[in-house]
Every structure is written in C-alpha cells, then in structure tokens.
Amino acid sequence: MLHRKPPLLFLLIIIIISTATATTTIPQQFKEAPKFYNAADCPTTATVHVAMTLDATYLRGSIAAVLSVLQHSSCPQNIFFHFITSTDTGASLLRATITTSFPYLNFQIYPFNSSSVAGLISTSIRAALDTPLNYARTYLAEILPPHVGKIVYLDSDLILVDDIAKLAGIDLSNDAVLAAPEYCNANFTFYFTPTFWSNPSLSSTFSDRKACYFNTGVMVIDLNKWRAGDYTRKIEEWMELQKRSRIYELGSLPPFLLVFAGKIKPVDHRWNQHGLGGDNFRGLCRELHPGAVSLLHWSGKGKPWVRIDVGRPCPLDALWAPYDLLKPSFSIDDV
C-alpha cells in the first residue's frame, strides 16, 4: 500500500497545536451574542454594576449568565460588568473570549492574587469550594475602584429571567451592608461543627440576632459601608480561627454567615431559586421551589452544561440551555 506524506501545512498545524497545548489551555469557542439596546426611557446616569468571577472552568456558565442578564434588562447598555480573575489564569484569553461573544459589553477585568488568601483556606466537603477565586467575593471592596459604591454579585452557574435593575434597586439605606434572599426554614446548625456549637464564646455569636441561612451566590452589597466597617477583615478573622479550630465545613459561605446572618436586608426568594445543581455529594435533580422565579441558580455539585454534555440533563437544565453560546465542535462558522 502506498503511504503519502502528509502536507507540510498539516504538519505545521500539528506542531503549533501541540506547542500551544503544552503551555496553555485552548479556550472553548463561543458564538457572538446579539447586541441589546436601551429602552427609550432609560436614564443616562444610572449604572448597574455587576461583579462576577471569571475562570476557564466556569467560563461557559459565566457567558450564559451574562447573556441572560443582558437579554432581560430594560437598560442593558447601563450595565457594567466587573470580572475578577486569578492572576495565574490567562486573563488575556478570557478577555478575548468575552469581547468576541459580547463586542459591545461594558466591562473590566481585575486580577485577584490567589496567594493572598490561599493561607486562609481550609479544606471543605467539595474540592471546588476550596478554589481561591471562590473567595474573591470577600475582597470586592478592595478589588473594585472606590467609585463603585453598590454592586450586584452573581455566581457563574445561574441565569436571570427578570430585569437585574430590580435587584440592584434594593434599598440599603438603613444599617444593612448587603441584601440577599433569606431561608429561615433551613437547618442553620448544619453549617457549623459541634466544636463551634459546644463553645459558648463562639455560639453566642448568634445569640442577639435571628440568624438565617442565605446563599452568597446572589448578593447586593453596599461597598462603601463594607469598606467603612472593615468587613473583609472581620471575615478573615473567622477564617483564621477556622485554621486553628475547625468550626465549619463548607468553604467561603460560613464566614459570611458568621458576620452577616441575621443582619442582612431580606430579598424575595424569587431572586435566588438555588440548589438546582443538587446536593454536594450526589448532585441529584431538583425541582423549583414554590413561587415566582426571577433567577435560577445551579448551586450544588451538578452544573447544567456538564450534565447536558454527558447526555444526562435534569429537566430544569432545559431552562439554562437557550443561553448557552458554546459553538459545536464542528461549526459552519469555522468553514
């Protein structure tokens, strides 16, 4: 049988791909989203600031979340996205991907030095919760510019089906530093260890407040109050104690609960239909909570894009799929 030599161009392509793979991860390719325009009555000075983390692992979810925010906003051109990414991640590749999918997006990327928090992180029940970037929400007041006084923080595994301006407009004029949906029927004791509850000096932290669970994946934060109250340091103090005496098991959430539970401005549950990713061990399918829905959140082990790719989606993953901008492996756009 006659064996032909491969064309020189083909060999060069193989060499380039092999070299690139050895030094960095080839990013996924995403389609370009349509441009969204403001309604005629949109104010010209009312900017909605949105903060999200950005990394290669959750990039697909982040892009879907951004699309959902823009698509359901009455004033999408008034939205400014603040993306925080790890200093050891290819920020230029992430920037190029965002720009390609959203050419007209107002955004800025900020580096987060993972080493600054690495020494404070304790192992939790799921490895994904121990990623340093998962703790960036604690440092928003330091990372973002001083002129950003109010921020909507969003996780990367959610979509909005309502106008984000309604969420951003939550009144924080009183003492509350942040607003989020509260879940007072949840077993609050679950989030801390027996070591915590058996120590009166620790458990008394909640004695003067009606402490309820809230999910830190969706928060409205007054950064000016945060800075004035030095809340980053207050959270770090609990993280330092955790390193000495294990008082919780669940990543970056418990320090927020220790500082803020019972002191936040409650928000309607429609703004965080969370837990759609299932529990942290099995990731079983879940149904929506009763009531209206403005935001669907796949918190938990299972992510919709992963379940879709392996052909085992949960029923509610069909609500996420329309916002997925990932190109198929072989796209007509590549021809």
From TrEMBL:
Group of enzyme by EC: transferase
Transmembrane segments: none
GO CC field: Golgi apparatus
InterPro entries for the chain: Glyco_trans_8, Glycosyltrans_8_dom-fam, Nucleotide-diphossugar_trans
Pathway assigned in UniProt: Glycan metabolism; pectin biosynthesis
Gene Ontology MF term list: glycosyltransferase activity
Membrane topology: Single-pass type II membrane protein
Pfam families, per database record: Glyco_transf_8
Gene3D superfamilies: Spore Coat Polysaccharide Biosynthesis Protein SpsA, Chain A
Principal location: membrane
Record-listed E.C. numbers: 2.4.1.-
Subcellular localization: Endomembrane system
Keyword field: Glycoprotein, Glycosyltransferase, Membrane, Signal, Signal-anchor, Transferase, Transmembrane, Transmembrane helix
Signal peptide: 1-22
Xref: PANTHER family: GALACTURONOSYLTRANSFERASE-LIKE 1-RELATED, GLYCOSYLTRANSFERASE 8 DOMAIN-CONTAINING PROTEIN
Similarity section: Belongs to the glycosyltransferase 8 family.
Protein name: Hexosyltransferase
